[in-house]
Design a protein that fits this description.
Rossmann fold; five-stranded parallel beta sheet; Helicase, Ruva Protein, domain 3; 4 domains; 9% strand; 473 residues; GMP Synthetase, Chain A, domain 3; binds adenosine-5'-diphosphate; binds magnesium ion; alpha/beta
Length: 473
């Protein structure tokens, strides 16, 4: 570890520092060099306060990652070093920075492949406007599938246009949105890398909305708002990640809006990401909302099985690990929430294989990942059940709540009630309410009826099984 323990201006006692170093070394042995470099090296110790050890991560992402994947183990190892420690907290601590400095393009970015994950290292994150780029987040490493092809194509268009000397902005802004871990940040970094490599004179700024806010508030405090504005207004490409965090903060929104307009007027490219579409973002001023939707709005849909499998293959290859196809398929089936978790699963399996020194089997994969697998069990909603069942039987969704008793709609409705009872934790009265305000006895009757029929009617049993699997996958 490098000595960067000046978070919040505190000095860290050498005891806690050496405890931390031993803990870290142990864990490094357990998780392997790659995982260590990506996730643990950027973490520093802040202090040990009685029974509480406090460590700091440079970003929220890293904090969350370490909290979900390593916190238990870190605490256990720490206790072995120092029995008094019974709690571990992980804080986010932006590296100490002097007054606002102008973004230095020369060292603001690193070339891909130079130093894996070094971008996450807090040690050399100087006071620069643009956040460091993750060298792994390139177009080459982005796996394209149906759910993300539009966003990917749009990002490429922007990157290529920006790198072109003629430089015609194709659409402004490009607004990328989608759920957590679907590749928004990856695409933005990829754009920046591309522009860096093909037109290094272009001034590119990539930063999170949070950092934008932080910089802005800093500038206010140091009365350097003019500089602040100048820096932003002289860029060729401005990318702001996770703008949902800007909503609500009035003065920052105001500033963002002005910056935005100034750049658009000068024909500079803007790329924005958020977890929701402009129209669904809350706490946003109306004029901001409409302005954000002016360009191209491209969403990243939840991944499909094929895309997940493709991503697993690509990541395993990059990491140089060989995982049996069966295990890959299993992961692609089971870890459906987002790509970040998929990578987490892959990392854990890689660490496990390194530890035990042999290939992973389906059984051991299940064991290693049992907590992840549990949290990825699909939570099915009644709405979804109704929709799927209606689609399956080719009837209108409104028949699920209608009074019609014709067999052609009544039977599917009963199937849906049966599945609602089986796959959700809703009570009979709650289910009844969702089906057009029916009585709970009606639901009970439906459940019994379908159970009975499934014993004698193979076709129906097959339908129900198919629907169940589809809903749970
Ligand atoms: P978001 O910003 O949308 O929350 P990220 O861009 O941080 O998600 O992606 C989370 C992780 O998943 C990253 O490690 C990223 O490289 C990976 N990832 C997401 N989508 C893809 C993809 N299509 N191909 C390869 N990796 C992907
Ligand atoms: Mg992101």
């Amino acid at each position: 570890m490098e000595a960067v323990y000046r978070n919040h201006g505190e000095t860290v006692s050498s005891t806690s520092e050496s405890e931390w170093n031993r803990v870290l070394n142990q864990l490094k042995g357990e998780v392997g060099e790659t995982a260590f470099r990506s996730w643990l090296r950027p973490i520093s110790v802040q202090r040990v306060d009685g029974d509480q050890a406090v460590i700091a991560a440079p970003t929220r992402f890293l904090r969350d990652w370490v909290a979900t994947h390593y916190a238990d183990r870190l605490l256990a190892l720490w206790r072995a070093e120092n029995q008094r420690v019974t709690r571990l907290s992980i804080v986010v601590s932006a590296p100490a920075a002097p007054a606002l400095a102008v973004a230095d393009e020369a060292d603001g970015f690193r070339r891909p492949g130079s130093e894996p994950a070094a971008a996450l290292d807090a040690a050399d994150d100087k006071a620069q406007l643009s956040a460091p780029l993750d060298p792994r987040f390139t177009f080459a490493n982005f796996v394209v599938g149906k759910p993300n092809e539009l966003a990917h194509a749009a990002a490429r268009r922007v990157a290529e246009a920006c790198a072109d000397p003629a430089h015609i902005v194709p659409f402004n802004p490009l607004f990328l949105y989608g759920g957590v871990g679907l590749g928004k940040t990856h695409l933005m970094h990829a754009i920046a890398w591309h522009v860096r490599q093909h037109a290094c004179d272009r001034k590119v700024i990539y930063l999170s909305a949070e950092k934008f806010m932080y910089q802005f508030i800093r500038a206010l405090r140091f009365k350097s708002t003019m500089d602040f504005k100048e820096q932003f207004r002289s860029v060729d490409l401005l990318m702001i990640d996770d703008v949902q965090f800007i909503s609500g903060k009035d003065s920052t929104q105001e500033e963002f809006f002005h910056t935005f307009n100034a750049l658009v007027d000068q024909n500079r490219q803007i790329v924005i990401s958020a977890d929701k579409s402009p129209s669904d973002l809350e706490g946003l001023e109306e004029r901001m909302r409409s302005r954000l939707g002016w360009g191209l709005v491209a969403d990243l849909h939840p991944t499909t099985y094929e895309l997940r499998l493709g991503i697993l293959h690509s990541k395993a290859e990059q990491a140089g690990i060989r995982i049996p196809q069966k295990v890959m398929e299993f992961l692609a089936h089971k870890i459906t929430s987002n790509v970040r978790e998929l990578e987490g699963a892959l990392n854990r399996i890689a660490a496990h294989m390194q530890l035990v020194g042999r290939d992973i089997t389906l059984e051991s994969a299940q064991e290693v990942l049992h907590d992840l697998l549990r949290s990825n069990m699909r939570r099915v909603t009644i709405d979804e059940i109704q929709r799927r069942v209606a689609e399956h039987y080719n009837i209108r969704l409104s028949e699920m709540t209608s009074d019609r008793r014709a067999r052609a709609v009544a039977r599917p409705r009963q199937v849906a009630m049966y599945l609602a009872k089986q796959l959700t934790t809703r009570s009979l009265p709650e289910i009844g309410r969702k089906f057009g305000g029916r009585d709970h006895t009606t639901v009970m009757h439906a459940v019994r009826k379908i159970e009975e029929l499934m014993l004698t009617d193979a076709g129906l049993a097959e339908d129900v099984e198919l629907l169940r699997r589809m809903l749970q996958s």
